[in-house]
Amino acid sequence: MAINEKNLCVVLNKPLDIVFENRPVPEIGQGEVLVNIKATGICGSDVHYWQSGGVGSFIVKKPMVLGHESAGIIAAVGPGVTNLKVGDRVALEPGVACRMCDQCKQGRYNLCPEMVFAATPPYDGTLCNYYRHAADFCYKLPDHVSLEEGALIEPLSVGIHAARRSHIRAGDRVFIFGAGPVGLLTAAAAKAAGAAHITIADITPSRLEFAKTYCTQSQVLLERPQLGEPNMDYARRTAAKILETEPLADVVIDCTGAETCVQMSVLLTKNGGSVVLVGMGAQVQSLPISEISAREVDIKGIFRYCNTYPMAVNSIASGAIDVKPLITHSYSLEDSVKAFEHARDGTDNAIKIQILG
Ligand SMILES: [Zn+2]
Ligand SMILES: [Zn+2]
């Protein structure tokens, strides 16, 4: 493949300020590949960095290339690379772990303290023409899986990791808070894991309309709390209302991070069931601990994913999981700012917005 000299990068210069920079095409070393990025999904975290300059404890202190949900074509391979060749189509796993520490050796490399993750400060992201990446974190896509589908493997991985950590078994009843891309892909992963009935809840009616057509059996429209109503009062009142029509769930997965949803998650879980926390909200939240103790509800944290890409590629390739319906809009790399504005506003029933390069 001929490598263009042009390497247009979408750079977050400072909060609310996205600029385009033509940066040199990266040099690659031992075990690395150069990927011509073709499709990148915009994630909530990208929008957060752009709007506020930070996500949780990660703060943007210098200009940073955005984007981490990408797929592309191998443009060059470095010395020692045997698993890939020029022209291969790949999905990029955007976090490269050290491969040496206890967590890495135990296979929980998402918890590696040395993790280098695209578009997480201080590391540049993938929203560019050419991205240098570790060959062992690139996953070949079968011919019939598109690069657009490949760019959805990153958020799908979050859903697969959540479904795995929750130990969903065939026949389980699963309740999910949040019908955005991660909630929907978690539903897809739960279904593929054997869940018999999946309920999804959100405050946005259009998202639930979409969810009706995607991997869920029932949809719950949440009202907003009344003015001045304490969160736990709202959670108890709303959970009781949901339980009028829904049985308790084996597994509840929160993809919102909202304290009220985490509280309801506990109240909607069967005795001995699991609550899985995918969403990241306020750093400190209050929970109904007596319920957690007396009913042995297991609370499990989720940090990204690990060892999920091969399963995600296979699930898409086999048809077990269909990610295509989630891609509602796409923009050219040059129109990235428009794409980010669209993702921020969420207009026109947007689910996943992609930038195609
Ligand atoms: Zn993401
Ligand atoms: Zn490590």
From TrEMBL:
Q: Which Gene3D superfamilies does UniProt cross-reference here?
A: Medium-chain alcohol dehydrogenases, catalytic domain (3.90.180.10), NAD(P)-binding Rossmann-like Domain (3.40.50.720)
Q: Where's the Enoyl reductase (ER) domain?
A: 13-351
UniProt cross-references to SMART domains, sorted A to Z: PKS_ER (SM00829)
Would you say which domain of life the source belongs to?
A: Eukaryota
Listed A to Z, the keywords are: Metal-binding, NAD, Oxidoreductase, Zinc
Q: Which SUPFAM superfamilies match?
A: GroES-like (SSF50129), NAD(P)-binding Rossmann-fold domains (SSF51735)
Q: Which GO terms describe its molecular function?
A: L-iditol 2-dehydrogenase (NAD+) activity; zinc ion binding
Q: Name one GO biological process term.
A: sorbitol catabolic process
Its protein name is: Enoyl reductase (ER) domain-containing protein
